[in-house]
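Note to self: keep these together.
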Amino acid sequence: MALSIRRMFSMFNRDLAIDLGTANTLVFSKGLGITVREPSIVAINRDTNTVEAVGEEAKRMLGRTPSNIVAIRPMRDGVIADFEVTEQMLSELMRKAQRKGGRFNVLQTDVVIGVPSEITQVERRAVKDSAKKAGAANVYLIDEAMAAAIGAGLPVTEPTGNMIVDIGGGSTDVAVISLAGVVYSRTLKVAGNAMDENIVHYIKRKYRLLIGERTAETIKLKLGSAFPLEEKIEMEIKGRSLETGIPRTLVVRDDEIREALAETVNAIVETIKIALERTPPELAADLVDKGIVLTGGGSLLKNFDKRLREETNLPVFLAEEPLLSVVLGVGQMLSDSNLLHRICKNH
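Structure:
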Protein backbone atom coordinates (compact mmCIF):
# COMPACT_ATOMS: atom_id res chain seq x y z
CA MET A 1 0.00 0.00 0.00
CA ALA A 2 2.84 2.39 0.95
CA LEU A 3 4.58 1.63 -2.34
CA SER A 4 1.47 2.38 -4.39
CA ILE A 5 1.04 5.70 -2.56
CA ARG A 6 4.69 6.50 -3.26
CA ARG A 7 4.18 5.74 -6.96
CA MET A 8 1.04 7.84 -7.01
CA PHE A 9 2.88 10.83 -5.52
CA SER A 10 5.82 10.38 -7.94
CA MET A 11 3.43 11.00 -10.82
CA PHE A 12 2.88 14.51 -9.50
CA ASN A 13 6.42 15.39 -8.44
CA ARG A 14 9.89 15.78 -9.92
CA ASP A 15 13.12 15.12 -8.04
CA LEU A 16 15.15 18.29 -7.55
CA ALA A 17 18.83 19.22 -7.38
CA ILE A 18 19.75 22.44 -5.58
CA ASP A 19 22.77 24.72 -5.56
CA LEU A 20 22.09 26.42 -2.22
CA GLY A 21 24.41 29.39 -2.52
CA THR A 22 25.11 32.44 -0.38
CA ALA A 23 24.39 34.77 -3.30
CA ASN A 24 22.00 32.74 -5.46
CA THR A 25 19.98 29.52 -5.25
CA LEU A 26 19.47 27.46 -8.40
CA VAL A 27 17.09 24.51 -8.73
CA PHE A 28 17.38 21.75 -11.35
CA SER A 29 14.26 19.67 -12.01
CA LYS A 30 14.77 16.14 -13.30
CA GLY A 31 13.79 15.96 -16.96
CA LEU A 32 13.48 19.73 -17.32
CA GLY A 33 16.83 21.28 -16.42
CA ILE A 34 17.25 24.51 -14.46
CA THR A 35 13.80 25.75 -13.49
CA VAL A 36 14.63 28.30 -10.77
CA ARG A 37 17.48 30.81 -10.53
CA GLU A 38 16.92 33.36 -7.77
CA PRO A 39 19.00 35.46 -5.33
CA SER A 40 19.22 33.86 -1.87
CA ILE A 41 17.27 36.68 -0.23
CA VAL A 42 14.03 36.71 1.77
CA ALA A 43 12.01 39.82 2.71
CA ILE A 44 10.38 39.46 6.14
CA ASN A 45 7.64 41.63 7.65
CA ARG A 46 8.82 42.12 11.24
CA ASP A 47 5.38 43.18 12.46
CA THR A 48 3.66 39.98 11.33
CA ASN A 49 6.75 37.72 11.06
CA THR A 50 5.64 36.63 7.59
CA VAL A 51 7.49 36.32 4.30
CA GLU A 52 6.78 39.24 1.95
CA ALA A 53 8.97 38.10 -0.95
CA VAL A 54 11.64 35.59 -1.95
CA GLY A 55 14.44 35.74 -4.51
CA GLU A 56 14.53 38.41 -7.20
CA GLU A 57 11.54 40.27 -5.82
CA ALA A 58 13.19 40.41 -2.38
CA LYS A 59 16.51 41.56 -3.87
CA ARG A 60 14.80 44.55 -5.44
CA MET A 61 13.82 45.54 -1.90
CA LEU A 62 17.42 45.69 -0.62
CA GLY A 63 18.04 49.13 0.83
CA ARG A 64 14.56 50.28 -0.20
CA THR A 65 12.26 48.69 2.38
CA PRO A 66 10.17 50.47 5.05
CA SER A 67 11.27 49.96 8.64
CA ASN A 68 8.90 47.03 9.24
CA ILE A 69 10.25 44.98 6.30
CA VAL A 70 13.78 43.60 6.36
CA ALA A 71 15.56 41.83 3.48
CA ILE A 72 17.60 38.91 4.85
CA ARG A 73 20.33 36.72 3.33
CA PRO A 74 19.78 33.47 5.29
CA MET A 75 23.03 31.94 3.97
CA ARG A 76 26.41 33.22 5.12
CA ASP A 77 29.83 31.93 4.01
CA GLY A 78 28.13 29.07 2.20
CA VAL A 79 26.24 27.76 5.27
CA ILE A 80 22.90 28.40 6.94
CA ALA A 81 22.95 31.47 9.16
CA ASP A 82 19.19 31.63 9.74
CA PHE A 83 17.53 28.21 9.92
CA GLU A 84 13.89 29.29 9.81
CA VAL A 85 14.32 31.78 6.95
CA THR A 86 16.34 29.24 4.92
CA GLU A 87 13.53 26.72 5.35
CA GLN A 88 10.97 29.28 4.13
CA MET A 89 13.16 30.21 1.17
CA LEU A 90 13.76 26.58 0.20
CA SER A 91 10.08 25.76 0.51
CA GLU A 92 9.07 28.61 -1.81
CA LEU A 93 11.78 27.90 -4.40
CA MET A 94 11.06 24.16 -4.41
CA ARG A 95 7.36 24.87 -4.93
CA LYS A 96 8.22 27.29 -7.73
CA ALA A 97 10.33 24.59 -9.41
CA GLN A 98 7.51 22.06 -9.15
CA ARG A 99 4.95 24.53 -10.53
CA LYS A 100 7.19 25.25 -13.53
CA GLY A 101 7.30 21.52 -14.15
CA GLY A 102 3.52 21.28 -14.13
CA ARG A 103 3.53 19.77 -10.62
CA PHE A 104 1.97 21.30 -7.56
CA ASN A 105 3.24 19.40 -4.52
CA VAL A 106 6.76 19.14 -3.11
CA LEU A 107 5.92 16.15 -0.88
CA GLN A 108 7.77 12.89 -1.68
CA THR A 109 10.38 14.72 -3.77
CA ASP A 110 13.99 13.51 -3.53
CA VAL A 111 16.50 16.35 -3.33
CA VAL A 112 20.27 16.53 -3.96
CA ILE A 113 21.98 19.63 -2.55
CA GLY A 114 25.50 20.98 -3.11
CA VAL A 115 27.25 22.15 0.09
CA PRO A 116 30.77 23.46 0.92
CA SER A 117 33.20 20.61 1.61
CA GLU A 118 34.29 21.74 5.07
CA ILE A 119 30.93 22.43 6.71
CA THR A 120 30.41 20.67 10.04
CA GLN A 121 28.11 17.76 10.74
CA VAL A 122 25.81 20.17 12.59
CA GLU A 123 25.66 22.43 9.52
CA ARG A 124 25.03 19.43 7.25
CA ARG A 125 22.17 18.35 9.48
CA ALA A 126 20.75 21.89 9.36
CA VAL A 127 20.72 21.81 5.53
CA LYS A 128 19.05 18.39 5.50
CA ASP A 129 16.47 19.40 8.10
CA SER A 130 15.63 22.59 6.19
CA ALA A 131 15.02 20.65 2.97
CA LYS A 132 12.95 18.01 4.75
CA LYS A 133 10.82 20.60 6.52
CA ALA A 134 10.34 22.26 3.13
CA GLY A 135 8.81 18.96 1.93
CA ALA A 136 11.65 16.76 0.64
CA ALA A 137 11.34 13.00 1.24
CA ASN A 138 15.04 12.09 0.95
CA VAL A 139 17.96 14.54 0.97
CA TYR A 140 21.47 13.83 -0.34
CA LEU A 141 24.36 16.25 0.20
CA ILE A 142 27.21 16.53 -2.31
CA ASP A 143 30.36 18.62 -1.89
CA GLU A 144 30.08 21.70 -4.10
CA ALA A 145 33.59 21.16 -5.44
CA MET A 146 32.68 17.64 -6.61
CA ALA A 147 29.40 18.90 -8.08
CA ALA A 148 31.21 21.75 -9.85
CA ALA A 149 33.76 19.33 -11.30
CA ILE A 150 31.00 17.07 -12.64
CA GLY A 151 29.08 20.06 -14.00
CA ALA A 152 32.24 21.34 -15.69
CA GLY A 153 32.67 17.99 -17.45
CA LEU A 154 35.79 16.76 -15.62
CA PRO A 155 36.42 12.97 -15.63
CA VAL A 156 36.00 12.63 -11.85
CA THR A 157 35.66 8.82 -11.89
CA GLU A 158 38.99 8.23 -13.64
CA PRO A 159 42.28 7.55 -11.77
CA THR A 160 43.73 10.95 -12.67
CA GLY A 161 44.02 14.24 -10.82
CA ASN A 162 41.41 16.94 -11.44
CA MET A 163 41.67 20.33 -9.72
CA ILE A 164 38.57 22.47 -9.39
CA VAL A 165 38.31 25.96 -7.88
CA ASP A 166 34.72 27.08 -7.24
CA ILE A 167 34.52 30.76 -6.26
CA GLY A 168 30.96 31.40 -5.15
CA GLY A 169 29.31 34.21 -3.22
CA GLY A 170 30.17 33.26 0.35
CA SER A 171 32.94 30.68 0.01
CA THR A 172 35.69 29.40 -2.26
CA ASP A 173 36.04 25.63 -2.59
CA VAL A 174 39.35 24.21 -3.80
CA ALA A 175 39.60 20.46 -4.39
CA VAL A 176 41.67 17.78 -6.06
CA ILE A 177 39.49 14.88 -7.21
CA SER A 178 40.30 11.34 -8.39
CA LEU A 179 38.30 8.11 -8.65
CA ALA A 180 35.04 9.84 -7.59
CA GLY A 181 36.63 10.90 -4.31
CA VAL A 182 38.05 14.13 -2.92
CA VAL A 183 41.80 13.67 -2.34
CA TYR A 184 42.29 17.15 -0.93
CA SER A 185 39.83 19.97 -0.25
CA ARG A 186 39.79 23.33 1.43
CA THR A 187 36.96 25.81 1.90
CA LEU A 188 37.90 29.46 2.24
CA LYS A 189 35.12 31.64 3.66
CA VAL A 190 35.83 34.56 1.37
CA ALA A 191 34.62 34.90 -2.21
CA GLY A 192 32.39 37.20 -4.27
CA ASN A 193 30.57 38.79 -1.33
CA ALA A 194 33.86 39.57 0.39
CA MET A 195 34.96 41.35 -2.78
CA ASP A 196 31.83 43.53 -2.64
CA GLU A 197 32.58 44.36 1.00
CA ASN A 198 36.20 45.20 0.08
CA ILE A 199 34.91 47.77 -2.41
CA VAL A 200 32.43 49.30 0.07
CA HIS A 201 35.18 49.74 2.69
CA TYR A 202 37.72 51.07 0.18
CA ILE A 203 35.37 53.75 -1.19
CA LYS A 204 34.34 54.68 2.35
CA ARG A 205 37.94 54.94 3.55
CA LYS A 206 39.41 56.74 0.54
CA TYR A 207 36.56 58.99 -0.53
CA ARG A 208 34.38 59.19 2.58
CA LEU A 209 31.51 58.02 0.40
CA LEU A 210 28.95 55.44 1.48
CA ILE A 211 27.71 53.04 -1.22
CA GLY A 212 25.37 50.03 -1.03
CA GLU A 213 26.13 46.40 -1.82
CA ARG A 214 24.33 46.53 -5.16
CA THR A 215 26.52 49.45 -6.26
CA ALA A 216 29.62 47.60 -5.03
CA GLU A 217 28.65 44.52 -7.05
CA THR A 218 28.20 46.66 -10.18
CA ILE A 219 31.64 48.22 -9.64
CA LYS A 220 33.18 44.75 -9.22
CA LEU A 221 31.62 43.48 -12.43
CA LYS A 222 32.63 46.53 -14.50
CA LEU A 223 36.01 47.46 -13.04
CA GLY A 224 37.17 44.54 -10.89
CA SER A 225 40.30 42.63 -11.92
CA ALA A 226 42.99 40.40 -10.40
CA PHE A 227 45.78 41.41 -12.81
CA PRO A 228 46.46 44.70 -14.67
CA LEU A 229 44.20 45.28 -17.66
CA GLU A 230 45.47 46.05 -21.15
CA GLU A 231 43.30 49.17 -21.30
CA LYS A 232 42.46 51.40 -18.35
CA ILE A 233 38.74 51.73 -17.54
CA GLU A 234 36.77 53.92 -15.16
CA MET A 235 33.17 54.56 -14.18
CA GLU A 236 31.04 57.11 -12.40
CA ILE A 237 29.52 56.05 -9.09
CA LYS A 238 27.00 57.64 -6.76
CA GLY A 239 26.72 57.48 -2.99
CA ARG A 240 26.18 59.51 0.15
CA SER A 241 28.93 61.72 1.54
CA LEU A 242 29.84 60.81 5.11
CA GLU A 243 30.90 64.40 5.72
CA THR A 244 27.87 66.30 4.42
CA GLY A 245 25.20 63.59 4.29
CA ILE A 246 24.38 64.77 0.75
CA PRO A 247 24.39 62.49 -2.34
CA ARG A 248 27.62 62.80 -4.31
CA THR A 249 29.09 61.53 -7.59
CA LEU A 250 32.70 60.57 -8.31
CA VAL A 251 34.78 58.61 -10.83
CA VAL A 252 36.76 55.48 -9.85
CA ARG A 253 39.41 53.62 -11.87
CA ASP A 254 40.15 49.93 -12.38
CA ASP A 255 43.53 50.13 -10.59
CA GLU A 256 41.80 51.46 -7.48
CA ILE A 257 39.32 48.59 -7.44
CA ARG A 258 42.13 46.08 -8.05
CA GLU A 259 43.80 47.51 -4.95
CA ALA A 260 40.53 47.21 -3.03
CA LEU A 261 40.18 43.53 -4.01
CA ALA A 262 43.81 42.59 -3.38
CA GLU A 263 43.34 41.08 0.08
CA THR A 264 40.56 38.71 -1.00
CA VAL A 265 42.20 37.79 -4.32
CA ASN A 266 45.52 37.10 -2.59
CA ALA A 267 43.80 34.84 -0.03
CA ILE A 268 42.16 32.78 -2.79
CA VAL A 269 45.40 32.47 -4.76
CA GLU A 270 47.32 31.44 -1.63
CA THR A 271 44.71 28.76 -0.82
CA ILE A 272 45.10 27.32 -4.34
CA LYS A 273 48.91 27.27 -4.02
CA ILE A 274 48.67 25.43 -0.68
CA ALA A 275 46.35 22.87 -2.31
CA LEU A 276 48.95 22.28 -5.04
CA GLU A 277 51.68 21.80 -2.43
CA ARG A 278 49.58 19.19 -0.61
CA THR A 279 48.51 17.23 -3.69
CA PRO A 280 50.13 13.74 -3.93
CA PRO A 281 53.01 13.73 -6.48
CA GLU A 282 51.29 11.33 -8.90
CA LEU A 283 48.19 13.50 -9.10
CA ALA A 284 50.21 16.71 -9.16
CA ALA A 285 51.93 15.41 -12.31
CA ASP A 286 48.49 15.11 -13.98
CA LEU A 287 47.81 18.79 -13.25
CA VAL A 288 50.84 19.88 -15.29
CA ASP A 289 48.87 18.94 -18.40
CA LYS A 290 45.26 19.16 -17.21
CA GLY A 291 45.70 22.35 -15.22
CA ILE A 292 43.16 24.07 -12.99
CA VAL A 293 39.47 24.55 -13.82
CA LEU A 294 37.68 27.62 -12.47
CA THR A 295 33.94 27.83 -11.79
CA GLY A 296 31.56 30.09 -9.86
CA GLY A 297 30.69 33.75 -10.28
CA GLY A 298 33.93 34.91 -8.66
CA SER A 299 35.96 33.18 -11.36
CA LEU A 300 34.59 35.75 -13.83
CA LEU A 301 36.69 38.48 -12.18
CA LYS A 302 38.72 39.99 -15.02
CA ASN A 303 42.17 38.42 -15.48
CA PHE A 304 41.83 36.08 -12.51
CA ASP A 305 42.84 33.18 -14.78
CA LYS A 306 45.86 35.17 -15.98
CA ARG A 307 46.90 35.95 -12.40
CA LEU A 308 46.66 32.26 -11.51
CA ARG A 309 48.77 31.22 -14.51
CA GLU A 310 51.46 33.70 -13.42
CA GLU A 311 51.41 32.39 -9.84
CA THR A 312 51.32 28.62 -10.56
CA ASN A 313 52.82 28.15 -14.04
CA LEU A 314 49.96 25.78 -14.78
CA PRO A 315 47.26 25.90 -17.47
CA VAL A 316 44.09 27.56 -16.15
CA PHE A 317 40.70 27.06 -17.77
CA LEU A 318 37.32 28.67 -17.16
CA ALA A 319 34.39 26.24 -17.11
CA GLU A 320 32.02 26.57 -20.06
CA GLU A 321 29.19 27.75 -17.81
CA PRO A 322 30.89 28.81 -14.55
CA LEU A 323 27.71 30.15 -12.93
CA LEU A 324 25.87 26.87 -13.52
CA SER A 325 28.54 24.23 -12.86
CA VAL A 326 27.37 23.25 -9.37
CA VAL A 327 23.66 22.98 -10.19
CA LEU A 328 24.41 21.08 -13.42
CA GLY A 329 26.62 18.71 -11.42
CA VAL A 330 24.03 17.98 -8.74
CA GLY A 331 21.45 17.77 -11.53
CA GLN A 332 23.39 14.92 -13.14
CA MET A 333 23.14 13.01 -9.85
CA LEU A 334 19.36 12.78 -10.29
CA SER A 335 19.85 10.55 -13.32
CA ASP A 336 22.94 8.64 -12.15
CA SER A 337 22.12 6.92 -8.87
CA ASN A 338 25.26 4.75 -9.07
CA LEU A 339 27.54 7.79 -9.16
CA LEU A 340 25.44 9.51 -6.46
CA HIS A 341 25.84 6.63 -4.02
CA ARG A 342 29.50 6.15 -4.95
CA ILE A 343 30.25 9.81 -4.19
CA CYS A 344 28.23 9.73 -0.96
CA LYS A 345 30.10 6.56 0.10
CA ASN A 346 33.50 8.09 -0.71
CA HIS A 347 32.72 11.23 1.30
